[in-house]
Design brief:
The complex is a heterodimer of chains A (about 300) and B (about 100). Chain A has about 300 residues and is mostly helical. The chains are: A mainly alpha (about 300), B mainly alpha (about 100).
C-alpha cells in the first residue's frame, strides 16, 4: 500500500506538471491585446535586455518552450516515481514501454555504436511534440517560431560535424571532394543546407497549419454572418459556423502534423548523425591503432 | 507616395502568390510516393508498418521545396511590406 509521503510527492508532481501550462494560459490572457478579424502575428516580445552586440529578446516562444521543458521534467519524474523491480504501479509499465520503444528505434536506425543516444533522441522528440501540442490550449506553439527550431537544428548540425570529424580533419575535408573534386562547392553548400532544411521543414509545417486555421476561422465567421442574418435577435450575431468545423482541421494540423513533425525531426537527426559518421574508416583506424600498440609491446 | 506604397503592397502579394507555384512539385511528388506505397502494401501486406514509416519520411523530405516557397511567401506577406514601406518613407524624407 502506498504511504502518505508517496501520495503527497505524487500530487506535487502532478500539480507541477499542470502548473506551467496554466501559467502560460494566464500569461497569454493577461498580455494578449484584444483583436478582431484576421490576426496572424509572430511571438510577442515580453521584454528586451540590452546587450553590446545584439539585444537579448525574451519572447513568448522562449517562455512557452521553457514552461514545456518544466512540464516534461515533472511528467518524467511522475512516471519514474516508485520504480520497483517487481512492478507495483501501472505507470511503470508505461515508462518501460517508452524506454524500450526509444531504445529499439535508436538501435534500428543508428546502429550499435550510437545506442547511448536514445535519451537525446527521445528528449528532442518529446520537446517537439509537446511544444506543437501546446497550440491545442490556444497558446503560441514554440515550434512555429524559427528561432526555437533553428536552435535545435544548429545543435544537430554540431553533432553531425562532430561525428564527421571523428576520423580527423583531413578525412573530413577529403569528404568534400567526393565523388569529384569539382563538386566541392556544392558539397560545402549542402553541408549548411542540412540544418536550414530541418528547421524550415518543422517550422513551416506548424506555422502553415496555424495560418490556415486562422484563415478558415475568419472565413467561417464571415460566412455565417452572411448566411444566417435572417435569424431573429442576437442569434444572428453568433458565428454558428465557427463551432465544431475548425476542430476537424485542428486534429490534422495541431495533433497529427505536430506529432508527425516531431517524429520526422527525430528520425532525420538519427539519420544524419549516424550517416555522417564514417564507421568503416573509424573501425579500421581503431584496429590499426590497437595492432600498433600490440606490436610496440 | 500612396501609389508607391500601393505598388509595394500589390507586388508583395503577387510575389507571394507566384512563389507558391512551387507547391505543384511536392504535390505531384508526394502523390507519386503514396501511390507507390499503396502498391507495395497491396503486394506485400505484411510489411505495412515499414512501408508507411518510409513513406512518411519520404513525404516529409519531398515537402521541403514546397516549404521553402511557403516561407518565402510568408515573409513576403508579413515581413516585407513593413520593411519596404519603411525604406521608402526613409528615402523620401531624406530627399
Amino acid at each position: 500500500m502506498k504511504s502518505l509521503k508517496f501520495k503527497i510527492i505524487d500530487i506535487i508532481y502532478i500539480v507541477m506538471m499542470i502548473l506551467p501550462i496554466a501559467f502560460a494560459i494566464v500569461l497569454q490572457v493577461l498580455t494578449k491585446p484584444v483583436s478582431e478579424g484576421i490576426s496572424i502575428s509572430g511571438a510577442r516580445i515580453f521584454f528586451t535586455i540590452p546587450m553590446p552586440i545584439q539585444d537579448f529578446i525574451v519572447s513568448e516562444s522562449q517562455v512557452n518552450s521553457a514552461l514545456v521543458i518544466v512540464s516534461i521534467l515533472f511528467l518524467c519524474l511522475y512516471l519514474t516515481h516508485g520504480l520497483k523491480e517487481r512492478i507495483e504501479l501501472k505507470r511503470q509499465h508505461f515508462a518501460e514501454l517508452i524506454v524500450e520503444k526509444a531504445d529499439g528505434l535508436v538501435k534500428d536506425n543508428m546502429g550499435e555504436y550510437f545506442k547511448g543516444y536514445s535519451p537525446f533522441i527521445i528528449a528532442i522528440m518529446a520537446l517537439s511534440a509537446f511544444s506543437s501540442l501546446l497550440s491545442l490550449f490556444g497558446l503560441f506553439a514554440p515550434t512555429s517560431d524559427i528561432n526555437i527550431v533553428g536552435g535545435w537544428a544548429i545543435l544537430v548540425f554540431f553533432l553531425i560535424t562532430y561525428y564527421k570529424l571523428k576520423c580527423g580533419p583531413l578525412y573530413y575535408l577529403k569528404g568534400f571532394t567526393e565523388p569529384v573534386a569539382l563538386l566541392a562547392p556544392i558539397n560545402f553548400i549542402s553541408e549548411f543546407a542540412t540544418p536550414v532544411s530541418m528547421a524550415f521543414r518543422h517550422y513551416g509545417n506548424v506555422l502553415s497549419g496555424s495560418v490556415i486555421s486562422v484563415l478558415l476561422g475568419t472565413a467561417l465567421g464571415g460566412l455565417s454572418s452572411m448566411v444566417l442574418k435572417w435569424l431573429p435577435g442576437f442569434l444572428a450575431d453568433i458565428p454558428l459556423f465557427q463551432i465544431g468545423i475548425p476542430a476537424v482541421l485542428s486534429i490534422y494540423f495541431d495533433v497529427f502534423s505536430g506529432l508527425l513533425q516531431a517524429f520526422i525531426f527525430a528520425m532525420l537527426t538519427m539519420m544524419y548523425v549516424s550517416g555522417g559518421f564514417p564507421i568503416d574508416e573509424y573501425n579500421r583506424r581503431r584496429l590499426k591503432k590497437a595492432q600498433k600498440a600490440l606490436n610496440n609491446k | 507616395m500612396e501609389i508607391a506604397i500601393g505598388i509595394i503592397l500589390g507586388c508583395c502579394a503577387l510575389g507571394a502568390g507566384l512563389a507558391m507555384i512551387a507547391g505543384i512539385g511536392p504535390g505531384i511528388g508526394e502523390g507519386d510516393a503514396v501511390a507507390s506505397a499503396c502498391e507495395a502494401i497491396g503486394r506485400q501486406p505484411e510489411c505495412k508498418s515499414d512501408v508507411t514509416t518510409t513513406m512518411l519520411m519520404g513525404c516529409a523530405i519531398a515537402e521541403t521545396t514546397g516549404l521553402y516557397a511557403l516561407v518565402i511567401a510568408i515573409l513576403l506577406i508579413f515581413v516585407a511590406p513593413n520593411l519596404l514601406v519603411d525604406i521608402l518613407v526613409n528615402t523620401i524624407s531624406a530627399l
